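Example (one chain per record):
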Amino acid sequence: MRYPITLIFLLEFVFSSAQIFPVEIYPHDYFRDPLEIPMSLAANFGELRPNHYHMGLDIRTQHRENLPVLAAADGYVAKVVIEPLGFGQAIYIRHPNGYTTLYAHLNSFFPALAAYVEAQQYRLESWQVSLDIPAGMFPVKKGDLIAYSGNRGGSQGPHLHFEIRRTADDTNLNPLLFGLPVPDNTAPEIVRLAVYDRNVSVYEQSPRFCAIQRTGTGLFTVTGDLVTVAASRVSFAISAFDTQSGSTNPNGIYEAVLYKDEVPLTGFRMNNISYNDTRNINAHIDYKTRETGGPFLQHLSRLPGYTPPSIYHGGDGVIDLSDGVVHNIRIEVKDAYGNTADLRYRVLYKPSVMTAHEAAPLTGKEFYPGMLDTYETNDCAFYIGEKSLYDSVHIPFNVSDGPPSPVYSIGETYIPLQEPLLVRIKAKEDQIAGGTDRIVMVRSHGKEKEVQRPEWQGGWASARWREFGDFQLVQDEEAPRITPLGIKDGALLSKATQMAFRVKDDLGAIGDFRAELDGRWLCFTNDKRLDYIYKFDMHCRPGRHTLKVSAADVAGNRTTSIYHFTR
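Predicted structure:
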C-alpha cells in the first residue's frame, strides 16, 4: 500500500514538480476515517463538476444509509447547516490543530445536537438554517458518534461527503494528503490531448484532438509521435482520470506539469482550493467544449483573466513555436500518492498547415478580461465587469419579438462568467402602466429558466446573472399551486406518520413556504427542493387541529390553504 506524498518523496520532487510547486507537509495520523467500514471513494478532491470543483472526498457507504459517522479527531461542533440542496445536513467540527472537518448529506445528528438544532429552527421559524454553535457546547473526542450517514441535499446516492479545511481562512485542503487509509497503487490514465491556437480566444475556436496510445505502464505518446501545428503560439489540455486500488471508479487527478524540452513551464495541483475560488474551474477546463457536449479538458495553461489565487504555478503555459524547431513535450500527471503517468511527444510549427478550426465570421462587440465595458441600445444594456471574463471574446446581441415582450439574446452560454453580468431592460409603457410589483426578469436557455425580481430605476429593470442567455421582462400574476399529499380537510390522521405538500409555480420560482399549526409555526422539510414534508412529532399532539399553509413566488404572488384534521 502507498500513502500520500510525505518526506519520502521530497527528493523526487526536488528534481521534478518541486521546481513548479512549493513543498508542503501535512499532519498524518491525526485524522481517522469517519466511518467504521473500509474506506472507498466515489469521488476525490478537485474532481471536475459543473461550475465548481469537488471540495472533499465522497466516501462510499456500501449503498446504505444511517451508518454511524464518527468524529475524525478531538474538537467541538462549531457549525451546523441544513439546506435543501448543497450539503443537505452537515456538521462542522473545529480541531485544536488549526483544521476544521465537515461531514455532509447526513440523515440525522446525535441526539443532543439534534434537539438543539430543532429548538433553533423553531426559534428562527425556519427549517433551513446555518447555525454557528458556541465553542465548548458540544465537545467531541476522536471516534465519537456525531451523526448518521444519508443522501440529503445535492447528493445523488447514499454516501458521506468529508472535507478538511484550514480554519484560519476556511480554505479546503485535499484530505488524501493527511494519511487517510485509502490504498492506491494505480497510476492515472491520460486519455485525450487537445491543442489550441493561442493567437485567438479559446472561446472562438474548437480544439484539435490528437490520438493517444499507451507505450507501457504509465507511459503514453501521441500516435505518430509528432504534432504539427499551424499556429506560432499553442497550448495544450488533457483529459485524464485516476483510480484507487481495487476500484475502477474514475476520479480526478491531483497534479499535472507541462515540460518543454525537459524544462517545466507550468502545472496545476489540487491541494487547496477555497469555495470563494471554486468557480474558477471554468477557466481550468475547456468550458466551451464541455458546454457543447464534449468531454472535460483540463488546460495546461492559465487563461489571461484567471487571476490569483490559482491552482496553477509557474508560467502561463503558452508555448512559442515561432522558431520552427521541433520541441519535445512531456506532460506528467500524478495522483496524491505519487503514482505517475507520462505523455511524451514532439511538436513542430509549420505555418503552411491548415488550422484545425475554420475561421468563422465573428459577430458582436469584443470584450476583454480585466476591463469594465458595456453594450447599450435604446431599450437594453449589459455590463461586463473587470473580473467577469477569462479570455477575450466577441459577445453577440440580438433582439426578437416574443410574447409577451421582447427577448434580448446576450452572448453564448459556452462563454463562462466568473463575476455576474448586469442586464438592464427598459419596460414598455403599457407593461408598467399598472405598476412594476409583479414584473420579473427571466433568463432562459432551451428548457432552462431562472427568475429574479429586478431593481427598478426610471422605467429600467436591472438584475445580475451568472450566465449568458435570453432575457425578458414578464408580468407574473399567477400564484403558486399547493397540492396536498396525504391530507385533506376533515381528515383523521391518527395513524399517519407524515403529511406533505407539493408546490409548483408557472415560472418555477418559489420564494417561500410557511406552515402554521393552530397559529404556531410548524417545521416542514424540503430536501432536494421536492415536497414539503412534516413528520408527526411532539409539536402535533392528539386532538383537533387547524393547519394553514402558504407559498409565495419571487414576484410576491401568494397562495394560502387551510385544512382541519384530527390527530
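Caption: The two ends are 58 Å apart (CA to CA).
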